[in-house]
Specification:
Helix content: 25-40%
Structural class: mainly alpha
Order of helices and strands: HHHEE
Strand order of the largest sheet: 1-2
Shape: flat
Low-confidence stretches: none
Mean pLDDT: 86
Largest sheet: 2 strands, antiparallel
Length: 96
Amino acid sequence: MKLQEDILEKLETLSHLRIADEKREEVLAQLSEILAYVENLNELDTSHLDSYFSTLQGGTPMREDTPSNDPEIPAIILEHAPDAADDFFIVPAIIE
């Protein structure tokens, strides 16, 4: 499927983005390639697959959710903050 200029304009409006004039042809070509790839997926016969089909035997593996109790982590994070004090980030006031 080849995208037309009017579709690109609608995508710009929906995404609140503006594509530079010199990049429009390149973006149109890239989006057309993506759509062609997705159209290839329509050729796959999935009628014999259940809606819950997974390629992983036994489902999605889960990791153990254990909290880290390392007391240095907050200090390391605050080291990279532009401004911090008393274990808090200091940010400009937005309400006056």
